[in-house]
Amino acid sequence: MDAKAMFSFSYGLYVVSANDGENVGACLINTALQVTGDPLQVAITLNKQNHTTQVVKAAEHFTLTVVSKTADMPFIGRFGFKSSADVDKFEGITTKTSLLFDPYTPEHACAMVCCAVVNTIDLGTHVMFIGEVCDAERVSDEEPMTYAYYHSVLKGKTPPKASSYIEGEDPTKPVVPVSAPKHHFRCNICGYVYETTDEELPADFRCPVCGVGPENFTKID
Amino acid sequence: MDAKAMFSFSYGLYVVSANDGENVGACLINTALQVTGDPLQVAITLNKQNHTTQVVKAAEHFTLTVVSKTADMPFIGRFGFKSSADVDKFEGITTKTSLLFDPYTPEHACAMVCCAVVNTIDLGTHVMFIGEVCDAERVSDEEPMTYAYYHSVLKGKTPPKASSYIEGEDPTKPVVPVSAPKHHFRCNICGYVYETTDEELPADFRCPVCGVGPENFTKID
Questions:
Q1: Which of A77, A78, A169, A177 minimizes the C-alpha distance to A185?
Q2: Pick from A9, A40, A130: which is nearest to B32 by CB?
Q3: Residues of A with Cβ-Cβ distance to B7 under 8 angstroms
Q4: Do B11 and A8 touch (CB under 8 A)?
Q5: Where is the Rubredoxin-like domain (chains A, B) (predicted)?
Q6: Which range is least confidently modeled, A30-44, A120-134, A147-161, B117-131?
Q7: What are phi and psi of A33, to 5 degrees?
Q8: Closest-CA residue in chain A for B126?
Q9: Which of A45, A136, A148 is nearest residue B5 as measured by Cβ atoms?
């Protein structure tokens, strides 16, 4: 069996957010899909360890935004590589409120879909929420970001808590700059590449995307 | 509410096939995704009216192939616009048998994944099968076909039984040939465009992709 076969599955990239009245959760996923047209229903899967999962469970609703190709690694890092338990992911960006009071950002978004949870399915490490769409809106005409684009162009990595994570395997190709007078360090956690003239990263260096220290960086040239 | 917001969701294209010992079913879907990494589990959704759905239910296993960009409309039509109850979809193409005895074709495929059904979820018009992966193999290095590519390049349509069908709406752009000395007729069912010097289609004309007659074609120039 070759688990790498799973790398040819195609996905989009989405932000799931929810507000249960006490807590706000938001995170990045690639596993969202329309499952029926009448009624309009959407399925999403979330890792049970995610703070957002507990907030969606308590709120019984969530809002999904379709991430556009305009999103950069700091935006991806904000929603994908940090925990809502530690930081306010909507701080410093335009924030709107959906019909069911979930916060969401129209920045780097193609569309938003607001859903009421109608079914919850235990998948072991993950949980699937089936949501009935209560509101939907096109936010921009930008092209949706696909997971393949995220891997190939942004050089992003699959975090261990993602549905499509396979241990020891990553579809990310190594970054090989064409002409590099400077040194490049690649974050092992989120894939961010830092360029510097220094031979080593300083001890107090922190990844601008996911926040880890220099011990999590690999020098790639 | 603008249901067209759902058009920005990204999908791949997959063939689901199963053999329950008495019947063989195979059909094209866009709703397949990995839902957990350990154990490796995959979710698919199928319309209850599909013959393949009954075969998967009876077999309690299915095989999924990831369709590659090399697939043409006749291949798409074979699996997407006909019923396994009427035709043998594997006739005339290379056919292999998976670990759980489902037929599948390595033609126009990137990968195959063979799954045992571990959970069945009723979604109303559709049913979701959660399968645990028993075998997986990379079949070719071709690029996976995305649903966006199918719509934009192959000019394919979303059949009414698909999860992502929205009544009266279709993300397909009309086909406008740059220079057309001939006449073009577009199939309302599958989107196939037929080129001819005739002003009208003969009464015995049948769509080479989905098999419908001239009453289902619209002259587009």
A1: A177
A2: A9
A3: 111
A4: no
A5: 182-220
A6: A147-161
A7: -155, 150
A8: A36
A9: A136
Give the model's confidence band at A29: pLDDT under 50 very low, under 70 low, under 90 confident, else very high: very high
A5: chain B residues, CB-CB within 8 Å:
66, 111-113, 136-138
Chain B residues with CB under 8 Å of A11 CB are 10, 12, 33
Is the preceding omega at residue A214 within 30 degrees of 0, hence cis?
no
**Locus of tokens 């063979």:** B114
State how far the Cα of A132 lies from the Cα of B123, in Å rounded to an integer.
11
CA distance B65 to B28: 10
- Segment A181-205 shows an average pLDDT of 85
Edge to edge, the sheet with strand A109-122 lists A24-29, A14-19, A61-67, A109-122, A126-138, A40-47, A32-37
- The pLDDT value recorded for residue A181 is 62
Our measurement of the distance from residue B63's CA atom to the centroid of its chain's CA atoms, rounded to an integer in Å, reads 14
Closest CA to B194 of A212, A37, B205: B205
| Highest-confidence segment of A80-84, B49-53, B198-202 | B49-53
Domains delineated in chain B:
10-152 (2.30.110.10), 183-219 (2.20.28.10)
Q: How many A/B residue pairs have CB atoms within 8 Å?
A: 176
Radius of gyration of chain B (CA): 18
| Cα B212 from Cα A174, distance rounded (Å) | 49
ipTM score for this prediction: 0.81
The tokens describing A163, both together, are: 């549905």
**What span, in angstroms and rounded, lies between the C-alpha atoms of B200 and B202?**
6
Which chain A residue has the Cα nearest residue B127? A35
φ, ψ at A184 (rounded to 5°)? -125, 135
Ranges of beta strands (E only) in B3-60 are 14-19, 24-29, 32-37, 40-47
